[in-house]
Amino acid sequence: MDVQNLTVAQVMSRTLVAVEPDESPLMAWEIMRRAGIHHLPVVDRRGCLRGVLTREDLMARWSGGPAEQSRARVHPLLAEHRCPHTRLDARLADAAESMIGAGVDAIPVLGEENRLVGMVTATDVLRAVAGRTAGPQESPELLTGMFRLVPVMPRDPAE
């Protein structure tokens, strides 16, 4: 298969873990750690993209201990964060060019009504270059792993 003719839909990751804007940075970090991911889409209740958090975003703004981070929310971390995106029918080469231009190593894929349907990561691009694409998927559905972990921490004696 010619890499120049590949579309985003042919190479994107379709099974994603995402959080809502009111999730805590502590939980976002733990979700990323447990899922082994570096990019965490932030979507509203309708599945519309609000931004993408990276491990670097969380580390750069981390202050205070676990109790403080569990009370904070991720949506303020998205305010200054540029989030390029692409569409299912876009050429992979164009998506890769957008990633390079924005200095990011992952780009969300949006479907109808700006709903998140997948992500293209640098690893997905490298797999395509190596000829290891899975081809078009039968189902265009995204299996979004929306879940909420509840931190179990000792109560702060000061409270």
Outline the structure in words.
With 159 residues, the chain is an alpha/beta fold. It has a single domain, classed as Roll (CBS-domain). It is built from seven helices and seven strands; from the N terminus they run αβαββαααβαββαβ. A three-stranded mixed β-sheet has the order 4-5-6. Strand 2 and strand 3 form a beta hairpin. The chain is elongated, with a radius of gyration of 17 Å. Mean pLDDT is 82; it is low at 138-146 and 149-153. Residues 12-68, 79-139 form the CBS domain. InterPro entries: CBS_dom, CBS_dom_sf, Diverse_CBS-Domain. Pfam families: CBS.
Short structural summary:
The protein contains seven helices and seven strands; from the N terminus they run αβαββαααβαββαβ. It is an alpha/beta fold and 159 residues long.
Topology overview:
Layout: H1 8-11, E1 15-16, H2 25-35, E2 39-43, E3 49-54, H3 55-61, H4 66-71, H5 75-78, E4 86-87, H6 92-102, E5 106-110, E6 116-121, H7 122-129, E7 143-144
Parallel strand pairs: 1-7, 4-5
Antiparallel strand pairs: 2-3, 5-6
**End-to-end distance:** 61 Å
Q: Give the low-confidence spans.
A: 138-146, 149-153
Q: What value does the Rg take, in angstroms?
A: 17 Å
Placed side by side, the strands forming the largest sheet appear as 4-5-6
Give the total of domains.
1
Biggest sheet descriptor: 3 strands, mixed
Sequence of secondary-structure elements: HEHEEHHHEHEEHE
Q: Provide the structure class.
A: alpha/beta
Per the CATH scheme, the topology name is: CBS-domain
For the record, the CATH architecture stands as Roll
Percent helix among the residues?
Answer: 25-40%
The helix tally amounts to: 7
